[in-house]
Specification:
Layout lengths: L2 H5 L1 E12 L4 H5 L1 H4 L11 E12 L3 E5 L6 H8 L7 E6 L14 H10 L1 E4 L3 H4 L6 H11 L5 H14 L16 H13 L5 E5 L7 H18 L2 E6 L2 H7 L2 E6 L2 E7 H6 L4 H8 L3
Parallel strand pairs: 3-7, 3-8, 5-6, 6-7
Antiparallel strand pairs: 1-2, 1-4, 8-9
Helix pairs in contact: 7-8, 7-9, 8-9, 9-10
Bound molecules: adenosine-5'-diphosphate, magnesium ion and zinc ion.
The site of zinc ion has 8 residues, from helix 2.
């Protein structure tokens, strides 16, 4: 691989902001003075993501860690167009050479990017899967959205993907609602991978699963990342997940990035007071 393509970010996010509410004279003028965490007590506006900038490089796993409410899910929702940003820019190197802010594109383009360039695994499998469809049907749906038409190709691809995530062959026509939490997440992963996205977004994939099941799903994610060289944005409040998966990590607090670095460095030698607290509370 050329050095230039390695160093060039596959995803670049610049000054992403997402607020819920209009804001008022108090919080719009100087938000650091009046906000309680991310919340304006005068008008009730929530500043979920305040000024988020980062880059994801080809083939890396970038971790996003922070306490509940710090804005992690909102960030992924904005990047997957589940929610509209208040302002800010994002560029994907696979789309128009990374020169166009994807947030400004039409809804058709956004749908195209969702279907062909991005995959997302939700914390809640009900958001990522049709629970009553068959598992392989869930994958076919995504393949059709990405332009597939041939049933036998889709069947082969679906079977391959589900077996890759260790769903037994005899269960691939079963609906995810019959499956355990760990299996549902594995079906979600298969679905998210079905269009070969160069970028995968994962939100608290293992939160709520038993520890042994968690380890299993995390291993699978790591293996798939190595096999496919896909770039991942892994969001978790759990430092153990971040430690296991992420090459680099950003730490979020109240909608801002407070620390960023190689995961080992961030966890072994945190510079920011909040990160220090987060790391030490684990022990
Ligand atoms: N639809 C919404 N309306 C108002 N506030 C919201 C909405 N969605 C999320 N928030 C708020 O945005 C902040 C960030 O939430 P979230 O991104 O879910 O955090 P995290 O995933 O880090 O726990 C929280 O304060 C949350 O209450
Ligand atoms: Mg969340
Ligand atoms: Zn306000």
């Amino acid at each position: 691989m050329e050095i230039s393509s390695f160093e060039r970010p596959i995803l670049k996010v610049k000054n992403l902001k997402k607020q819920f509410g209009q804001g008022c004279n108090f919080c719009l003028e100087d938000d650091t003075k009046v906000l309680i965490k991310n919340y304006c007590p005068y008008c009730g506006t929530v500043y979920a993501c305040k000024d988020i900038s980062f880059q994801v490089y080809s083939g890396e796993i970038l971790g996003v860690v922070g306490e509940s409410g710090s804005g992690k899910s909102t960030l992924l929702e904005c990047l997957y167009f589940d929610k509209e940003v208040t302002s800010g820019e994002a560029f994907i190197s696979n789309y128009k050479d990374g020169e166009i802010n994807i947030f400004q594109e039409s809804s058709q383009v956004k749908r195209f990017l969702k279907n062909n360039v991005l995959g997302k695994v939700y914390q809640n499998p009900m958001l990522g899967l049709k629970m009553d469809f068959s598992s392989i049907g869930n994958i076919a749906e995504k393949l059709i959205a990405a332009g597939s038409r041939r049933v036998c190709d889709m069947e082969a691809r679906g079977t391959g993907l589900l077996s890759r995530v260790n769903i037994p062959l005899f269960r691939i026509k079963e609906a995810p609602k019959n499956f355990s939490g760990g299996m549902q997440q594995r079906v979600q992963i298969a679905k998210a991978l079905s269009n070969n996205p160069p970028i995968l977004l994962l939100d608290e994939v293992t939160t709520g699963l038993d520890l042994s099941v968690q380890a299993n799903v995390l291993d699978l994610i790591k293996e798939i990342q190595r096999e496919l060289g896909i770039s991942m944005l892994v969001v978790s409040h759990d430092l153990a997940v971040i430690r296991m998966l992420a090459d680099r990590t950003i730490v979020m607090l109240d909608g801002r990035i407070v620390e960023e670095g190689l995961t080992d460095q961030v966890l072994e030698d945190p510079q920011n007071a909040y990160t220090q607290q987060l790391v030490h509370s684990l022990i």
